[in-house]
Design brief:
The chain is built from 7 helices and 11 strands. It is of the alpha+beta class and 304 residues long. It folds into 2 domains: 96 residues, no CATH class; 155 residues, Jelly Rolls (Sandwich), CATH 2.60.120.260. The strands form 2 sheets. Strands 1, 3, 4, 6, 9 and 11 form a 6-stranded antiparallel beta sheet that branches. Helix 1 packs antiparallel against helix 2, helix 1 runs parallel beside helix 3 and helix 2 packs antiparallel against helix 3.
Length: 304
């Protein structure tokens, strides 16, 4: 059986009206507290209306949390009363500005942006600039000589014939499409019987007395065993009976893969030349004579 509820009158609820009225007037937290003791629901409503001491307000108490304080973005108290200002002081202790923002959670975005700005280190940017300067300086110090026209005759063999090339010694001169360094053809000397047998060019009439030349060529043999291959020279003056063997231009240990020979040379003779031969050979003392292949020959006068 359900008991009979005690009766009450509107006069019995008058004390709730007085508490509610106190909250509507923006009362202190103590007044709000006493109202809360006697009637929690009215006190909650009072907090929502005034931004006072109520814990769930949107315009007051919550901005005093650590998130609100961390932004340091707002210093003005809410428009609705002094109680919200006191909660703002609690927010400043949490880690940032003088008071919580009136809008609650939105200000932390401003605080985050401030932290991101603090992460930038201008000093590191300056160090990177110094690195770029160092690299630029190295590049600026490199210079290339001014070169004349290439005087090698059909040096890349791309005309498809042996034009410009001669056999030095007793080998057989061959235009070969078998694994050239570049393009379609290379020049080769096969059936070699002596270390001096190899491809050659006669540059008489093309080299100038006292001139200096830049030399570049790619060479290989048909044997995987590496042997010294060298670019040698000899000159024949019109008024002399014996040729002059001049200093070698370049040399390397060469097997069946392409190797780059490069160097510089001066003419070394001042006479009426009938022969000025650049030729490719092995060093003395070898007992086997694999075919020698040559490609991409370039000989250019160094102007300055």
């Amino acid at each position: 059986m359900v008991g009979q509820l005690p009766s009450c009158s509107l006069q019995d609820l008058s004390h709730l009206d007085s508490g509610h009225q106190a909250l509507n007037q923006g009362g202190t937290s103590s007044e709000g507290g006493s109202s809360n003791d006697t009637g929690g629901t009215p006190n909650g409503e009072g907090g929502a209306n005034t931004g006072g001491s109520g814990g769930t307000v949107k315009t007051g108490g919550m901005p005093g949390t650590t998130e609100g304080g961390s932004t340091g973005a707002a210093g003005e108290p809410p428009e609705t009363g002094g109680a919200a200002g006191e909660l703002g002081d609690a927010g400043s202790g949490g880690g940032g500005g003088e008071a919580g923002a009136a809008e609650g959670g939105a200000p932390p975005e401003g605080g985050s942006a401030g932290a991101a700005g603090a992460d930038v280190d201008p000093g590191e940017g300056g160090a990177s600039g110094a690195g770029g300067s160092e690299t630029g300086g190295t590049g600026g110090g490199t210079s290339s000589p001014t070169l004349g026209e290439d005087i090698a005759l059909n040096g890349d063999v791309e005309v498809g014939t042996a034009y410009g090339w001669l056999p030095h010694g007793s080998c057989t001169l061959v235009v070969s499409a078998n694994d050239p360094y570049e393009g379609t053809y290379a020049i080769a000397c096969t059936n070699r019987a002596n270390h001096w047998d190899g491809p050659s060019q006669n540059l008489a009439g093309l080299v100038q007395p006292g001139a200096q030349y830049q030399f570049s060529v790619w060479v290989r043999t048909t044997d995987a065993t590496k042997r010294r291959v060298q670019a040698s020279r000899k000159a024949q003056c019109a008024d002399e009976t014996e040729p002059r063997y001049l200093t070698q231009i370049a040399f390397a240990q060469v097997g069946d893969e392409w190797v780059h020979l490069q160097g510089k040379f001066s003419t070394e003779v001042d006479c009426d030349l009938v022969e000025y031969t650049v030729y490719f050979e092995n060093a003395t003392g070898v007992s086997e004579f694999p075919d020698i292949y040559v490609d991409a020959l370039s000989i250019r006068e160094i102007i300055d």
